[in-house]
Hints:
The chain is α+β, with helices and mostly antiparallel strands. The protein has a domain at 78-250: CATH 3.40.33. The chain is 26% helix and 20% strand. It contains six helices and nine strands; from the N terminus they run E-E-E-E-H-H-E-H-E-H-H-E-E-E-H. The protein has helices at 51-68, 84-97, 109-120, 148-157, 183-190, 243-246; strands spanning 19-21, 27-29, 34-36, 42-44, 106-108, 133-145, 203-211, 221-231, 239-242. A three-stranded antiparallel β-sheet has the order 6-8-7, sandwiched between helices. A two-stranded antiparallel ribbon has the order 1-2. Helix 2 packs parallel to helix 4 (148-157). The longest helix is centred in the N-terminal third of the chain and has 18 residues, at 51-68. The two termini are 30 Å apart.
Amino acid sequence: MNPSRNQTLAPDPHASGPCTTTGDGGGRCASPCWFVSRSGVITEAPDTRRPACDAVVLRSIDAARRREGVRPMVLPSNFERLTTAEQLFVVLDLERVDRGLPPYLGLTANLDAVALRGAQRNGDPVGTGGMPVGPDGAGTIWAEDYSVLMVDFGWMENDGWGGTLRATTNVACRSPHDPGCWGHRDVILAVDTRHGRNCHTCVVGAAYATIRGRGREATPSGSYAAVIAQPASGVHPRLVFSWARDVVPFLARPKR
């Protein structure tokens, strides 16, 4: 079930807050998602990979989850050592398993390549890399932001109608009851056909690319893309990163 309304990031990691600089031009800002370069430029970094920044965004993710009756998101202990594409896959699967849905099995090389082409052109991936697809179908998602967790929050908690077109970040959501609203969330939790909630054989392609800002003063941002598909019967793509092998052993075990 989709949320009744969009949620907002609080605190907002995109707001730097007060920043201080040192004599050599470096420094820090109130938000750990921002930094001060040696030249004194205050900016968000594309593909922000900082535990302190992730902790800020997790506060908003967990607050939204509480409203939904979902437990807090607990990242695997190896999360900061994973590639951005692997992190993206992990977070998508955590959104599923924490809601009692079966995990997607893992990443495949051909779907990763499809996702990368989408990320590089700053848009939704196209196709399944020649992999035949089963009845639960395939779905694609894309977003531009500064970290995996920021993208996840947008897909899962801020994907509906924002009150006006200007305030709606999901470009496929053009009115309050447009079927494109919550479309990214629908793909993550149920594949594109919305009947794949119980898909036990679905695999993923995920990718990240840096998108250069327009204009002299514009800073670059991150382009994140994923494609999720159910292989046709009898098709068993080789996994280059596995939920069971590369994620589960690093998840915190529940206390007895």
